[in-house]
Design brief:
It is a single chain. By secondary structure, this protein is mainly alpha-helical. The termini are far apart. It contains ten helices and four strands; from the N terminus they run E-H-E-E-E-H-H-H-H-H-H-H-H-H. A hairpin with a 2-residue loop joins strand 3 and strand 4 (90-93).
Length: 254
């Protein structure tokens, strides 16, 4: 048996951090057919993928699996995280792996260094640093959670997300780590090469960072607004909102 096949999950799909086997070999937009994104609008990783598809004007369906147990996890699959995606008859897991294979087909260069920071550092940092109010606002804005339930939803999500972050750091061995969200935003600002990180037009890093923040910006969460303010990213954020409107990302959020 080829050693690569042994790294796949029992259902034949890729685990987190592992490339699909057999290789996808997606080269052109025309090959990106029958796209379905699986994962709740609440998930910043899921929203990040949808931001790329909206930017590329690719048709897709979004399945949130809100009635699944556990909620949001795609039923009938061995991959127990979100998001994953169906494309051209294949299921692909892990947002970073998905983008690595999707971006060349839509004419964007994949930046491994920044995607790794977004997936392992920024994601973990938000899980640990978001307040109960941040989580509640995110849930209301992206999922239509009742406002009067904020007092219950916020603390519950904070506990769950902190637990997940600590588990990822300790157990997965994939590089999950706690950082400083404001420093991340300042690093992003300092590495910009024009109106955008990519120059005159958005590139991989712009869309990935914006897609990650989109739900928090939509919910006017303090953690995201503080990042934008302290890093001086107001102009960049305004341009990204015009190119990938928040309403378009969340108009079918619930």
């Amino acid at each position: 048996m080829n050693m690569m096949t042994q790294t796949m999950l029992p259902d034949g799909t890729n685990p987190e951090g592992v490339d699909p086997f057999p290789p996808l070999n997606l080269q052109t937009r025309e090959e990106l057919t029958d796209i379905v994104v699986h994962g709740p609008a609440f998930s910043h990783a899921t929203t990040k993928l949808r931001a790329f598809l909206v930017y590329a004007d690719l048709p897709f369906t979004h399945m949130q699996h809100l009635k699944a147990k556990p909620q949001g996890i795609r039923p009938g699959t061995d991959y127990r995280k979100v998001p994953n995606i169906d494309v051209a008859g294949r299921q692909v897991n892990d947002s970073g792996i998905i983008l690595k294979h999707l971006l060349p087909a839509i004419g964007l260069e994949f930046n491994h260094e920044w995607e790794e920071r977004i997936v392992n550092e920024l994601d973990t940092t938000f899980k640990l640093h978001c307040t109960s109010e941040d989580w509640a606002r995110l849930a209301v804005a992206t999922m239509g959670a009742p406002r009067f339930m904020k007092w219950l939803i916020g603390p519950m999500l904070k506990r769950l997300e902190c637990k997940q972050a600590r588990y990822n750091i300790k157990m997965t061995g994939l590089g999950h780590r706690e950082g400083d969200e404001v420093k991340f935003a300042i690093d992003f600002k300092h590495s910009m090469s024009g109106k955008f990180h990519n120059g005159d037009t958005p590139g991989h890093v712009d869309i990935s960072f914006y897609g990650f923040l989109a739900g928090y910006l939509h919910g006017e969460c303090a953690i995201a607004e503080t990042m934008i303010n302290k890093a001086g990213l107001h102009s960049w954020a305004a341009k990204m909102k015009r190119i990938i409107p928040l309403k378009k990302l969340f108009e079918h959020g619930w």
